Amino acid sequence: MFTRDQLNALQEIINIAMGQGADRLARLIETFVVLSVPKLYAVKSSEDIHQAHQKMSEQPVITTRQSFIGPFRGEVLVIFGVNGANELAELMGYVDKGEEQIKEELILDLTNLLVGACVSGICEQLKLESSTFSSPGLFFEGGSLDAFMQGKALKDSKALLVEIQFRIESHAFACELLICISDASIKAVSDAVDRLIDSV
Amino acid sequence: MIPAPNFFEGIIQQLNTGIVIVDQVGDIQFWNQFMKLNSGHDHEDVLGRSIYDIFPEIPQSWFQKKIDTVYTLQHMAFTDWKKRPYVFRFPTTRPITGEVEFMYQNCTFSPLINEQRKVAGVLIVFTDITEVAEQTLAMERLTNNLEKEKQEQQKLITKLEEAQNQLLQSEKMAAIGQLAAGVAHEINNPTGFVYSNMGSLGLMVEDLMAVIDVYEDQLCRNSTPEAQQTINQAKEKYDFDYLKEDLVNLVKESKDGIERIKRIVEDLKGFSHVGESDWQMASIHKGLESTLNVVWNEIKYKAEVEKHFGDLPEIECIPSQINQVFMNLVVNAAHSIEKKGKIVISTGQKDQQIFISVADSGCGISQEHMNRIFEPFFTTKPVGKGTGLGLSVSYNIIKKHHGHIEVDSRPGEGTTFTLWLPILQPVQVED
Ligand SMILES: Nc1ncnc2c1ncn2[C@@H]1O[C@H](COP(=O)(O)OP(=O)(O)OP(=O)(O)O)[C@@H](O)[C@H]1O
Ligand SMILES: [Mg+2]
What we know:
- The complex is a heterodimer of chains A (200) and B (431).
- The longest helix of chain A is centred in the middle third of the chain and has 27 residues, at 100-126.
- Chain A has one domain: CheC-like (Chemotaxis protein chec), CATH 3.40.1550.
- Chain A has helices at residues 4-29, 46-51, 54-57, 100-126, 145-149, 183-199; strands at residues 34-35, 39-43, 62-69, 74-80, 132-133, 137-141, 159-168, 173-181.
- In chain A, strands 1, 2, 3, 4, 5, 6, 7 and 8 form an eight-stranded antiparallel β-sheet that branches.
- The radius of gyration of chain A is 16 Å and the shape is globular.
- Chain A is of the alpha+beta class and 200 residues long.
- Helices cover 52% and strands 18% of the residues of chain B.
- Chain B contains 13 helices and twelve strands.
- Chain B has a five-stranded antiparallel β-sheet.
- In chain B, a hairpin with a 5-residue loop joins strand 1 and strand 2 (28-31).
- Chain B is rod-shaped.
- Classes of the chains: A alpha+beta (200), B alpha+beta (431).
- The A-B interface holds A 24-25, 27-28, 92-95, 101, 104-105, 108-109, 112-113, 116-117, 120, 130, 132-133, 135-137 and B 59, 61-65, 68-69, 72-80, 83-84, 106, 108.
- Magnesium ion binds at residues 328, 331-332, 386, 390 of chain B.
């Protein structure tokens, strides 16, 4: 669906977007954050998610999701460890931590931040009209992503998957983002990439 | 229709949705009619004032992080009623029929971007979703209740299964009892005539011997030496002296044997008490004796049985069931003894209760088994030897008799089971 040139350009664009995203996040929560170099995959089935993702697939996780709507359209899955984001309660403005209620709201807040930082950055770089977002929600909790995805066909069978790790070393916290771009916006993305390549 | 200049503001004021605009530090820039009606504050009153002053219940650091998110990331932020029922504590929109006190809300925070593509404010929009929340909460309650009921049912099913197992065991005992009674009845008749024949036979053998004595006496005096010699030879050949003695003994032993058969048959009948599943006044000692006779085979090589019977009145009970309990206890006691030991059975009375204790010098019961021995199917015996129902059935029989069972055990030294039973049952006997 993408040519080699397009993919290379896209990788470059997303790298820049993530750099900016990390920078903004750091300012927001006033802590040094690390975003890994994003990896791009063309996904054909849930099988690919499994492969994209072998490190974490064994462990039980909490996974949230949030969708973004616009010319750039899709869903982001954020994969947390079983502890969620409890370590970050204070950074996120929570006063009394530890309660179950807070744990859940906290990971939804964090999901929203990460998704916002990443997706807005990509839109900006691609010079696409910015997306709007649905409210984040819990996708599933407890099992491994692998077990959960087993046999579930992803709706958009040809999608672009961007895998990013997000890490706050001072708080021993890490999570993983899977940005799934829907089939429908692949054309918008490849057109935008072409425009950028041409303009260079 | 041509929109008037304040046409859009009119729309915003009329929206059945809360709309607030705040700046970077949370000072209020705008709010609509919905906010006014619910908070009681006019637009003019709140303009420029901090939202944290107007709504002191808002957790400030958390809320500020939302505003910062919008400013820093130019990104939206959300709240979800399930995690946080409300941001603004407004009274419920169903003051009469509703079940909750306040308005459930979902909030969205979005950036207002100015011409310089900078964030100029945060637009907070929230909807009243009390209706959905109430339904969802009701559903959750329902699900919880269903789950609880399901667990209760599971408990009942387990109880039912236990009851059924006990019923099966009782039925088995009843069937065995009936079989035993049938066999006993069949054996009773032939035993009867063998017994009386043996009586006659004993007398006849005595008569026969008397006649032979007369023969011998006459022979000594009147016969030829050849005749005497022939007779002596024959006597020697058949060991006549021994024969004479043994014949009497044999008949006597046979009589004893038949007597024992008679007694066992009697006891079997008494033990099974066919048809006697009624409450009646019965003697505990009789029951104990007949039970011991029935299980004698199982214990005779293992243990000597000592009886310390006190004075007991007859008690109101279902004798066949009480005998079943005795049997379970005595057999358990015998099983607990590995080689050779002692079983002491004592009885006595205390106030309106009687007790029967069965003490053995067996292996004892370990602490961790102690609170499980009355469970159905709990057994430490090999497959085929124990079903683990004995004590659970006994427990239920004693409970039905309004009594109780005490256990005292020292591992390695022995165990004492004591039954306590009231002499008379409380007034309504059948439940
Ligand atoms: N007098 C005793 N001394 C030691 N252990 C005993 C004694 N009575 C009962 N127990 C323990 O309690 C367990 C349960 O006894 P219970 O009579 O219910 O079942 P059982 O004797 O194993 O099988 P059955 O159904 O044939 O009676 C026995 O397996 C044994 O471990
Ligand atoms: Mg037993």
